[in-house]
C-alpha cells in the first residue's frame, strides 16, 4: 500500500466515522427533542406549582395570624384566671375572718 492509497483509505474511514457520528447525533436529537405538547405540559406544571406556592404562603400567613390570635386569647384567659383566683383567695380569707369574728361574738355573748 503506497502513500496515496493510505491517505485515501484514511480519508474514507474518517468520512464514514463523521457520517456515523452525525447520524448518531441526529438520532439522539430526534428522540430527545422536546415537543410543543411537552412544553405546554411543563408550562401548566409551572403554573400549578406557582399557584400551590401562593396557596401555601396564604395558608402560612393565616396560620401565623391564627396562632397570634390564639396566643393573645390564651394570655387574656390566663390573666382573667389569675384575677379570679386572687378574688377567690381574698373572699376565702374574708370568710375566715368573718367566721372568726362570729365565733368570738358567740363566745362572748
Structure description:
The protein has helices spanning 3-32, 36-108. It has 109 residues and is mostly helical. It has 2 domains: 1-35; 47-109. The protein is rod-shaped. The chain crosses the membrane at residues 6-28. Keywords: Coiled coil, Membrane, Transmembrane, Transmembrane helix. Residues 60-98 form a coiled coil.
> Based on DSSP secondary structure assignment, what is the total number of beta strands?
0
Count up the helices: 2
Structural class: mainly alpha
The secondary-structure element order is HH
What is the beta-strand fraction? under 5%
Q: Which range best describes the helical content: under 10%, 10-25%, 25-40%, 40-55%, 55-70% or over 70%?
A: over 70%
Parts with pLDDT < 50 across at least 5 consecutive residues: none
Q: Please indicate the count of domains.
A: 2
Overall geometric form: rod-shaped
Describe the sheet with the most strands.
Answer: none
Report the mean per-residue pLDDT as an integer: 93
Distance between the termini: 149 Å
Gyration radius from CA atoms, angstroms: 45 Å
Features:
transmembrane helix, coiled coil, transmembrane, 2 domains, 109 residues, membrane, mainly alpha, rod-shaped
How is the topology of this model organized?
Blueprint: H1 3-32, H2 36-108
Protein name: Membrane-bound metallopeptidase
Coiled coil: 60-98
Transmembrane segments: 6-28
Amino acid at each position: 500500500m503506497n502513500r496515496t492509497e493510505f491517505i485515501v483509505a484514511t480519508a474514507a474511514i474518517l468520512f464514514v466515522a463523521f457520517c456515523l457520528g452525525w447520524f448518531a447525533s441526529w438520532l439522539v436529537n430526534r428522540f430527545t427533542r422536546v415537543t410543543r405538547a411537552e412544553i405546554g405540559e411543563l408550562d401548566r406544571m409551572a403554573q400549578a406549582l406557582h399557584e400551590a406556592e401562593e396557596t401555601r404562603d396564604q395558608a402560612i400567613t393565616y396560620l401565623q395570624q391564627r396562632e397570634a390570635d390564639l396566643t393573645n386569647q390564651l394570655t387574656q384567659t390566663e390573666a382573667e384566671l389569675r384575677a379570679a383566683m386572687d378574688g377567690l383567695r381574698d373572699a376565702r380569707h374574708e370568710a375566715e375572718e368573718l367566721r372568726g369574728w362570729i365565733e368570738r361574738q358567740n363566745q362572748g355573748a
